[in-house]
Design a protein that fits this description.
This is phosphoglycolate phosphatase. The protein is of the alpha/beta class. The chain contains nine helices and ten strands. It has two domains: 154 residues, HAD superfamily/HAD-like (Rossmann fold, 3-Layer(aba) Sandwich), CATH 3.40.50; 64 residues. The longest helix has 15 residues.
Length: 233
């Protein structure tokens, strides 16, 4: 059934969906090239050869901790971790929009959500320092009903607090929201918030386990598949 012919509300199992929330990196935008670039800048500064993009991409969802772990073999227990993290974030901030872009199928997906009068928002573990200017520059913030960063609330995902805050800002009860993300922490947070959970398999996915083991209600392979899922649900 085409979107144009839809006259009935969008129904998920045992619930009415009134809003869709999204993770940012790996779900709506491809930020891996700039994050990998910042990591390789640090390696170059230390006389080390760049790492292949394929090694760095899966760790994007883990932020500075993941990128430093792969690129410099540094964990949070290392005595220099905090200073290295600050350096990484500073380098990333200077180049965070150099190669980052919205995934090609995301704008038409969001346009169709608007056509269906379904508000949407963004919930990311990216700090507001990065998330707010980035979503504005990429044309996402103006249309989003909420942009909630990793430091907007006291706890980042997988804690459900940031998702609950986004639902509050949009004005929709959590049980009437779906949350779409590309990391197991997204699914854990969505489930803890009482939301319908959708795993985005086109994203970065991390290094832990298979997507179908995360416990998501649905798995989709491309952004536009979300509309088909909502029609079928």
């Amino acid at each position: 059934m085409s979107l144009e012919l839809m006259a009935e509300p969008l129904l998920a199992p045992a619930r009415l969906l009134r809003a869709v929330l999204f993770d940012l990196d790996g779900t709506l935008i491809d930020s891996a090239p700039d994050l990998a670039g910042a990591a390789n800048e640090m390696r170059a500064e230390r006389g080390q050869a760049p790492l292949a993009y394929e090694l760095l991409r899966p760790m994007v969802g883990s932020g500075a901790r993941g990128m430093l772990g792969v690129s410099l073999a540094v964990t949070p227990a290392h005595e220099d971790f905090e200073s290295l993290k600050a350096e990484f974030l500073s380098r990333y901030e200077r180049r965070m929009l150099q190669e980052t872009a919205v995934f090609a199928d995301v704008p038409p997906m969001l346009a169709q959500l608007r056509a269906l009068n379904l508000p949407w928002g963004i919930v990311t573990n990216k700090a507001e320092r990065f998330a707010l200017p980035m979503t504005r520059a990429l044309g996402l913030a103006e249309a989003a009903g909420a942009v909630v960063g990793g430091d907007t609330t006291p706890h980042a995902k997988p804690h459900p607090g940031s998702l609950l805050e986004a639902a509050r800002r949009i004005g929709v009860a959590p049980e009437h929201c779906a949350y779409v993300g590309d990391d197991e922490r997204d699914i854990l947070a969505g489930r803890a918030a009482g939301m319908l959970t959708v795993a985005a398999s086109w994203g970065y996915l991390g290094q832990g386990g298979r997507v179908d083991a995360w416990g998501a209600d649905f798995i989709i392979d491309e952004p536009l598949a979300l509309l088909k899922l909502l029609q079928q649900a």
